[in-house]
């Protein structure tokens, strides 16, 4: 690889740097790329994450639903010639085509104050919530992500880190039509991905410890991830039993993690914040005090903190009506009465979920009111709003076995509107 001209470094973190770069092709045209440098010197796990991006990037190279991977290389002064600033940047680099803005960059405005970056809902978010076509934009983003997850399943890949910063929107137009959408959503960043069929490959790409929740982003993890952390078990996709998850004798479905994360993204587009499942400082203090009474049960301060985080996450989910169903003492529904109680509980929980989402809505307008002109009747308008929340509720089922596959999700009535 030669001749890259590095421009802006638009992201940096503990694992590496992300640069915008240009290179002139054989026709004399200037092409735009994204270059990611993996900081190998900091942690061996970063090198494995870089290898995962390269392996899955190459496998998915021809899928239009995925950010286009070009190649990976080790940079030395002898092997690569950059046109500026990179002579001190020896390391492992990943090269991708530039695919547009991330959904994260579109949803939030960044305000720097006293060396702290504050995120506020952006003008794009307000348009998506208030404009006549905003509901359709939300629906189209979710539809294209589901199609991307179908493509991953066809290639035996689970992403495991679906979030707005890993969803790229290209050629976004301010006034898309309902029939022809001038933007494409592409899935990016496969540093947490795994192969759903090839155990030896996963062992090579993750090492002896296997995949853990530490490769994912905190706010987008499903309940089974934080339960696995508290019980000190290996990541549930590796086939171990998992306390607290219905029917732990079955291996967890690979799609379940990504569908939960997509549900959080859907709520984020509605509510304008990533910190959806949070409790108050007072609630957290009460849980800490209660857990301190049995602190002798935990082998270390780290184990205690992991248990506290799990309880805080569980409490936040319960605020939205998300939690395990009523069951008998052995954890199974063993009578018609139990099954009826569980069904009734799910119905009341769905009502609680809808009420909480509307309560958390910063605009207090409802999710279809601003789009009344797009419907033939009030009944159709209300049905659309109910379908959207019903779809999100389906993605956020407590049991991973109750969450839809991407194919099932695409058949939901929510995607039947505006076609």
Give an overview of the whole structure.
Keywords: ATP-binding, Kinase, Nucleotide-binding, Transferase. This is Protein kinase, putative. Residues 4-415 form the Protein kinase domain. By secondary structure, this protein is an alpha+beta fold. The protein has 2 domains: 5-98, Phosphorylase Kinase, domain 1; 129-277 and 320-416, Transferase(Phosphotransferase) domain 1 (Transferase(Phosphotransferase), domain 1, Orthogonal Bundle). Helices cover 39% and strands 16% of the residues. It has helices spanning 44-59, 103-107, 123-130, 134-154, 199-206, 223-230, 255-271, 281-292, 301-319, 336-360, 378-395, 406-410; strands at residues 5-12, 16-24, 30-38, 69-75, 91-97, 101-102, 108-113, 116-121, 157-158, 167-170, 184-187, 194-195. The chain has a 5-stranded antiparallel sheet, covered by helices on one side. Strands 6-10-11 form a 3-stranded antiparallel sheet. β7 and β8 form a beta hairpin. α6 packs antiparallel against α9 (301-319). The model is unreliable at 175-180, 237-248, 328-344 and 369-373 (pLDDT under 50).
């Amino acid at each position: 690889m030669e001749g890259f001209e590095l421009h802006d470094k638009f992201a940096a973190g503990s694992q590496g740097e992300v640069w915008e770069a240009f290179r002139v092709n054989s026709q004399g045209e200037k092409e735009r790329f994204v270059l990611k440098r993996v900081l190998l010197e900091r942690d061996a796990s970063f090198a494995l994450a870089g290898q995962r991006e390269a392996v899955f990037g190459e496998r998915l190279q021809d899928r239009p639903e995925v950010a286009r991977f070009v190649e990976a290389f080790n940079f030395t002064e002898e092997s690569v010639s950059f046109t500026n600033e990179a002579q001190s940047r020896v390391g492992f680099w990943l090269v991708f085509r530039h695919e547009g803005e991330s959904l994260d960059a579109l949803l939030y405005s960044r305000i720097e104050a006293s060396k702290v970056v504050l995120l506020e809902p952006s003008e794009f978010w307000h348009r998506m919530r208030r404009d006549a076509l905003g509901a359709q934009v939300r629906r189209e983003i979710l539809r294209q992500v589901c199609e991307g997850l179908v493509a991953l399943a066809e290639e035996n890949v689970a992403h495991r880190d679906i979030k707005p910063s890993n969803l790229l929107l290209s050629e976004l137009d301010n006034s898309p039509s309902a029939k022809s959408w001038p933007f494409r959503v592409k899935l990016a960043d496969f540093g947490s991905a795994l192969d759903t069929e090839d155990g030896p490959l996963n062992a090579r790409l993750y090492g002896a410890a296997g995949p853990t929740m530490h490769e994912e982003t905190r706010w987008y993890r499903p309940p089974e991830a934080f339960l696995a952390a508290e019980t000190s078990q290996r990541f549930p996709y590796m086939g171990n039993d998992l306390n607290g998850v219905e029917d732990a004798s079955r291996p967890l479905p690979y799609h379940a993690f990504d569908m939960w994360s997509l549900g959080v993204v859907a709520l984020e587009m509605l509510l304008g914040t990533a910190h959806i499942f949070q409790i108050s400082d007072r609630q957290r203090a009460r849980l800490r005090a209660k857990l301190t009474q049995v602190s002798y049960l935990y082998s270390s301060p780290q184990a205690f903190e992991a248990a506290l985080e799990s309880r805080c996450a569980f409490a936040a989910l319960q605020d939205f009506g998300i939690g395990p169903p009523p069951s008998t003492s052995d954890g199974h529904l063993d009578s018609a009465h139990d099954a009826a109680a569980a069904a009734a509980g799910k119905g009341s929980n769905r009502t609680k979920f809808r009420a909480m989402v509307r309560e958390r809505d910063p605009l207090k307008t409802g999710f279809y009111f601003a789009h009344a002109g797009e419907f033939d009747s009030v009944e159709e308008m209300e049905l659309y709003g109910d379908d959207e929340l019903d779809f999100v509720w389906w993605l956020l089922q407590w049991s991973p076995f109750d969450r839809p596959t991407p194919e099932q999700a695409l058949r939901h009535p929510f995607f039947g509107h505006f076609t």
